[in-house]
From TrEMBL, chain A:
This is A-type voltage-gated potassium channel KCND1. The keyword Transport applies. SMART domains: BTB. Belongs to the potassium channel family. D (Shal) (TC 1.A.1.2) subfamily. Kv4.1/KCND1 sub-subfamily.
Automatic annotation (TrEMBL), chain B:
Residues 68-103, 104-139, 152-187 form the EF-hand domain. Belongs to the recoverin family. GO terms for molecular function: calcium ion binding; potassium channel activity; potassium channel regulator activity; transmembrane transporter binding. Its main location: membrane. Gene3D superfamilies: EF-hand. Signal peptide: none annotated. Keywords: Calcium, Cell membrane, Ion channel, Ion transport, Membrane, Metal-binding, Potassium, Potassium channel, Potassium transport, Repeat, Transport, Voltage-gated channel. SMART domains: EFh (SM00054). It is found in: Cell membrane. GO terms for cellular component: voltage-gated potassium channel complex. This is EF-hand domain-containing protein.
């Protein structure tokens, strides 16, 4: 029940005295109220800003943090106040909710920050007041869409294939993303060229050519060079058929592929040819056959695979279907009305063009769209008056839905721009991540070097404390412990493989001894890099899979470290841990992930080189190893 | 149409402030502290300082969601609105609460009699009582166990009059009412139950 109603409850209970004389049985005992009767003022300190409020105010919503006993966890005995290390600006809104019963969404705040605060204080966003609900919902949806796109952009097309993909998967990938391999690119351009050739041929064959000797009439080129055009058509159709069959074979879900728009266009583009082949040279049927040739123009739609703008246009039209439908409907209504009026207005005049209402449709349409061919003009004064009203209203009716369609197009276009920009920036981001990884790897190596010194000479352990935080110290120690734990089990395997790894620097082949398959690691690490870039939910699982896949062979002695080029060894050994160290991206706050413990502190040292990544969550997640 | 606009304007502009705290303390049986708490709650809910009948009905419909509390709320509103001004001010509110929670038995029974006496003529007749009882049963709603029969209110009223109407003249006066209630153990005991509400 709303807080406001709770205030009236004592009064309603008091008024229950009015039922007593009517009651047949005696009343039940009232609940015992143990809480202190007197209302007290509570002090809430949010990051230094002190708020004061009545205890009753906070008690109004007992299922939130402030209203329940959960706030006792934040009670500071020394200062006798509740201390929250959160944003005081946001807290203002939260506290106003308790006071007024209405939660407002501050428009200048980031929607995710707001959601996080609500989640912390245990307030469900659904109770945002009507005044702010729409704004909140719009921005939340926009944010979610943007995040979804980002996820798609980063972990989508350009991620490299897993090594064990089948021929079919590779083929499908080549078709969907032509820039992944040279063959695919070649195929892409070839098909594009043939589409263009086919369309041009269709056009040119209707142009009148010089007639052959002995005839006066102009012939269309198609009939003059019939064989040539037929050959060109055949070649194009063969290529298109081949392409379609290849796509059908490679498609992961054939039924879904066959239902997709592009595949329908492909079929419609090549069908006329085959039907023409099958059809007999019959006078009756050839008329229908000629009509079929019209469908060859659909080949131009095949260009939408090659042009993003065309795809955006198509998508816009699809998403504006309701507006277009409304436009059509209102236009139809207006046409019928005006056609009827014009017909009856012009009925009297002789030689009138307005012979019937359907005949007047043409006039109405031409007038409403302000074309004004002039092949039909009203003669009577009434006709002229209605005609002018018709043209004025036409302008209005058509102008109304257009801005909606335009804004939709603009939104979708910008979304695409953003996705492209993200892809472009991804390379920069990956480079930065790699640098950061090297930094942390170096830090860990440095630590181990210092420990190496320290083991021999205990006095100089104090020298290791350079400018590393306690956090880093503890972290490195933890990693070291892990190495020590796993070393005993895998040391022998490591020794045998070390010799082979020394010889093959590039490590392009997988070691059969079971040592770190370098390529798999590198790929997995790159995949991890991809996932760390995006603020996506899936990356947590990816991180786990990374760890389950990689082995834990690591170089243990300083000599081994120095012997190898640091590049290689980093890949082999440190990559595991540093990759794991780097960053576990924050899952979006609107889907709070229960498994993530809150981070105690940011990772200043490790993320020193990556200024821009949005990752502040902790590395303790690695302990799930 | 003009009247309605004026009414709306009046509603938004009206802002009633109660008399001083000391005066209210003198008039009622509440302490200063209690009055403060009460006023805070009241002011929070009704910043304009008055409660009108619609708000009243809304509040009651939230407390009794299963049935239709509007009719009973109407009678109750009239019982609170002693000045018959169409809106309850803080003074009325607090006065009534003072009687109900801190008043003497006689005062409480007098208030109850006032509630039942819809036309304020000093007598409760069968029609008034039937209206009240029906309103109370409406508040219960339709989904009760055992299922209410249509003449249950009437039976209830008859039982009430059997008990209360001493001289069998068809109406219940204030004295008859108070006397009959004081004879009933249940009622006397129950009157004490609601004293700890605030």
């Amino acid at each position: 029940m709303a807080a406001g109603v709770a205030t009236w409850l004592p009064f309603a209970r008091a008024a229950a005295v009015g039922w007593l004389p009517l009651a047949k049985k005696s009343m039940p005992k009232p609940p015992v109220d143990n809480s202190s009767k007197s209302d007290e003022i509570l002090y809430v300190n949010v990051s230094g800003v002190r708020f004061q409020t009545w205890k009753n105010t906070l008690d109004r919503y007992p299922d939130t943090l402030l209203g329940s006993s959960e706030k006792e966890f934040f009670f500071n005995e020394e200062t006798q106040e509740y201390f929250f290390d959160r944003d005081p600006e946001m807290f203002r809104h939260i506290l106003n909710f308790y006071r007024t019963g209405k939660l407002h969404y501050p428009r200048h705040e980031c929607i995710q920050a707001f959601d996080e605060e609500l989640a912390f204080y245990g307030i469900v966003p659904e109770i945002i007041g009507d005044c702010c609900m729409e704004e909140y919902r719009d921005r939340k949806k926009e944010n979610q869409e943007r995040l979804a796109e980002d996820t798609e952009a980063t972990e989508g097309a350009d991620a490299p294939l897993p090594p064990d993909s089948t021929q079919r998967e590779r083929l499908w990938r080549a078709f969907e993303n032509p820039h992944t391999s040279t063959m695919a690119l070649v195929f892409y351009y070839v098909t594009g060229f043939f589409i263009a050739v086919s369309v041009i041929a269709n056009i040119v064959e209707t142009v009148p050519c010089r007639p052959p000797k002995g005839s006066v009439k102009d012939l269309p080129c198609g009939e003059k060079y019939q064989v040539a055009f037929f050959c060109m058509d055949t070649a194009c159709v063969l290529i298109f058929t081949f392409e379609y069959l290849m796509r059908l074979f490679a498609a992961p879900s054939r039924c879904k592929f066959m239902r997709s728009v592009m595949s329908v266009i492909d079929v419609v583009a090549i069908m006329p040819y085959y039907i023409g082949l099958v059809m007999p040279e019959n006078e009756d049927v050839s008329g229908a056959f000629v009509t079929l040739r019209v469908f060859r123009v659909f080949r131009i739609f095949k260009f939408s695979r090659h042009s993003q703008g065309l795809r955006i246009l198509g998508y816009t039209l699809k998403s504006c279907a309701s507006e277009l439908g409304f436009l059509l409907f209102s236009l139809t209504m207006a046409i019928i009305i005006f056609a009827t009026v014009m017909f009856y207005a012009e009925k009297g005049t002789k030689n009138s063009d307005f012979t019937s209402i359907p005949a007047s449709f043409w006039y109405t349409i031409v007038t409403m769209t302000t074309l004004g061919y002039g092949d039909m003009v009203p003669g009577t004064i009434a006709g002229k008056i209605f005609g002018s009203i018709c043209s004025l209203s036409g302008v209005l009716v058509i102008a109304l839905p257009v801005p909606v369609i335009v804004s939709n197009f603009s939104r979708i276009y910008h979304q695409n721009q953003r996705a492209d920009k993200m892809r472009a920036q991804q390379k920069v981001r990956m480079a930065r991540i790699r640098m950061a990884k090297k930094g942390t790897a170096n830090a860990f190596l440095q630590y181990k070097e210092d420990r190496g010194i320290g083991d021999r000479d205990s006095d100089s352990t104090t020298m290791c404390v350079k400018n590393r935080s306690t956090f880093e110290h503890q972290h490195h120690h933890l990693l070291h412990c892990l190495e020590k734990t796993t070393l005993c089990m895998t040391e022998s395997a490591f020794r045998t493989s070390r010799s082979t790894s020394l010889s093959s620097q590039q490590g392009a082949h997988n070691n059969s001894t079971g040592c770190c398959p370098r390529r798999a690691r590198r790929r997995a690490a790159m995949r991890l890099a991809n996932s760390t870039v995006s603020v996506s939910r899936g990356s947590i699982q990816e991180l786990d899979t990374l760890h389950s896949k990689t082995t834990t062979i690591t170089p243990q002695t300083r000599s081994s470290l120095n012997a190898q080029p640091t590049d290689l060894k980093l890949n082999c050994g440190e990559q595991d841990f540093t990759a794991a160290i780097i960053s576990i991206p924050t899952p979006p706050a609107n889907t709070p992930d229960e498994s993530l413990p809150p981070s105690p502190a940011p990772i200043p040292g490790i993320l020193r080189n990556t200024r821009a990544t949005a990752c502040t969550y902790d590395t303790f997640k690695i302990s799930s190893l | 149409m003009l009247d309605k606009a004026d009414d709306d304007l009046e509603m938004t502009m009206v802002c009633h402030r109660p008399e001083g705290l000391d005066q209210l303390q003198a008039q009622t049986n509440f302490s200063k502290r209690e009055l403060q708490v009460l006023y805070r709650g009241f002011k929070n809910e009704c910043p304009s300082g008055v409660v009108n009948e619609d708000t009243f009905k809304q509040i009651y419909s939230q407390f009794f969601p299963h049935g239709d509390a509007s009719q009973y709320a109407h009678y109750l509103f009239n019982a609170f609105d002693t000045a018959h001004s169409g809106s309850i001010m803080f003074e009325d509110f607090v006065t009534a609460l003072s009687i109900l929670l801190r008043g003497t038995v006689t005062e409480k029974l007098q208030w109850t009699f006032n509630l039942y006496d819809i036309n304020r003529d000093g007598y409760i007749n069968k029609e008034e009582m039937t209206d009240i009882v029906r309103a109370i049963y409406d508040m219960m709603g339709k989904y009760t166990y055992p299922v209410l029969k249509t003449d249950t209110p009437k039976q209830h009223v008859d039982a009430f009059f059997q008990k209360m109407d001493k001289n069998r003249d068809g109406v219940v006066t204030l004295d008859e009412f108070i006397m009959s209630c004081q004879e009933d153990e249940n009622i006397m005991r129950s009157l004490q139950l609601f004293e700890n509400v605030i």
